[in-house]
């Protein structure tokens, strides 16, 4: 489910991108052929990789229709963290205990984190997507919205084909080109693919050990710090300075404790720095998030998705259900879009005006709340919208 939120692994200057997307399909494929040849593929390999390649309109429809991340954190978490996924998480922990033990020794990534992404991405491998991966990547590379993200993935998929680990006719996955049980893009597989079951191949679709080991290596390479937490639920006093909450402020756990922040289970991690995260404002659930939490945004850029995955991982590691609180009524996607437009006109950077309360909109909301003398918890309400 990385979907729209990819890691940009290669930098391509805009003029190159403009020259390489759009236009006739045959001319576009001709350009791909030239690039594959420059990458070292033989004519036979190029022909094999591109045989039967076609545009997929349903890929573009899926790209334009993303709406899941307009849900609030509590709504999204309730929808995806089911009792069945908790039960299957416990079952898979036992089933792949040796793999998880090896992962924790080698990469320092806890099993709960991998189980959470495995569940949210593909329901533990059960739903991996039925889009032809080669065609999806070519379609999105031809489309001029984000060719700089997808064209390198086409080249990487061709290299996997040359290695014998990609079938352009039969390899399927998500609409945006992710493959396998933890949904990795071809270039991610090239960089971080691990043969976890020892069969000489990296098969993320059919081998859970390969998928889990590869996902762990990718997280470690993205900056995961072994032996450190990522999130814990907290209680916060009503007197807390709400302007200090949010990912933009990071303080020591000693400082947070002095302000009355307490762990709901256990104690705050000693000697570490973290941020107080209020995904639905001061009256909703509260978490202290540590540096490893920020690494998860390299897997997926959605605030709601990452916060849900991180919380789910704590549950899979034995944490109690969160205390949802009674959040103030939020805004509809249309209202958030209006709010973003108003904030933009006032000079705040909200990123894209898309009706999603994302990583840029939240601090903009918080800054506006503080300026207007409202509780600056980053959660937009009708009161803020009216005051603006």
Automatic annotation (TrEMBL):
GO terms for biological process: peptidoglycan catabolic process. Residues 28-313 form the Transglycosylase SLT domain. Residues 334-388 form the Peptidoglycan binding-like domain. InterPro entries: Lysozyme-like_dom_sf (IPR023346), MltB-like (IPR043426), MltB_2 (IPR011970), Peptidoglycan-bd-like (IPR002477), PGBD-like_sf (IPR036365), PGBDSf (IPR036366), SLT_2 (IPR031304). Pfam families: PG_binding_1 (PF01471), SLT_2 (PF13406). The keyword Oxidoreductase does not apply. Keywords: Signal. SUPFAM superfamilies: Lysozyme-like, PGBD-like. GO terms for molecular function: peptidoglycan lytic transglycosylase activity. Residues 1-19 form the signal peptide. This is Lytic transglycosylase. It comes from Thioclava pacifica DSM 10166.
């Amino acid at each position: 489910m990385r979907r729209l939120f990819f890691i940009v692994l290669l930098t391509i200057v805009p003029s190159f991108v403009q020259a390489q997307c759009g236009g006739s399909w045959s001319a576009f494929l001709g350009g791909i052929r030239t690039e594959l040849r420059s990458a070292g593929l033989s004519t036979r390999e190029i022909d094999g990789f591109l045989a039967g390649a076609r545009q997929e309109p349903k890929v573009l429809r899926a790209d334009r229709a993303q709406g899941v991340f307009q849900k609030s954190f509590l709504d999204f978490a309730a929808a995806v963290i089911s009792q069945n996924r908790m039960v299957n998480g416990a079952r898979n922990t036992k089933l792949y205990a040796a793999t998880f033990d090896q992962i924790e020794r080698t990469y320092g990534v806890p099993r709960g984190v991998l189980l959470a992404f495995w569940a949210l991405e593909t329901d533990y491998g059960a739903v991996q997507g039925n889009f032809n991966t080669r065609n999806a990547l070519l379609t999105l590379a031809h489309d001029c919205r984000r060719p700089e993200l997808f064209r390198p993935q086409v080249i990487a998929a061709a290299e996997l084909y040359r290695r014998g680990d990609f079938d352009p006719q039969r390899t399927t996955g998500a609409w945006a080109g992710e493959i396998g049980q933890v949904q990795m893009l071809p270039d991610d597989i090239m960089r971080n693919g691990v043969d976890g079951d020892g069969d000489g191949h990296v098969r993320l679709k059919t081998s859970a050990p390969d998928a889990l080991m590869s996902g762990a290596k990718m997280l470690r390479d993205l900056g995961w710090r072994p032996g450190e937490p990522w999130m814990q639920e907290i209680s916060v006093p009503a007197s807390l300075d709400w302007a200090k909450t949010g990912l933009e402020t990071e303080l020591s756990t000693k400082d947070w404790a002095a302000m009355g922040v307490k762990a709901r289970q256990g104690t705050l991690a000693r000697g570490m720095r973290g941020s107080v995260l209020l995904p639905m404002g001061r009256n909703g659930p509260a978490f202290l998030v540590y540096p490893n939490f920020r690494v998860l945004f390299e897997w997926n850029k959605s605030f709601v998705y990452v916060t849900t995955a991180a919380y789910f991982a704590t549950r899979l590691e034995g944490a109690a259900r969160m205390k949802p609180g009674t959040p103030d009524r939020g805004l509809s996607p249309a209202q958030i879009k209006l709010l973003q437009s108003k904030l933009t006109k006032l000079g705040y950077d909200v990123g894209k005006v898309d009706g999603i309360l994302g990583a840029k909109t939240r601090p903009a909301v918080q800054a506006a709340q503080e300026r207007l003398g409202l509780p600056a918890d980053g959660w937009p309400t009708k009161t803020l919208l009216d005051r603006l």
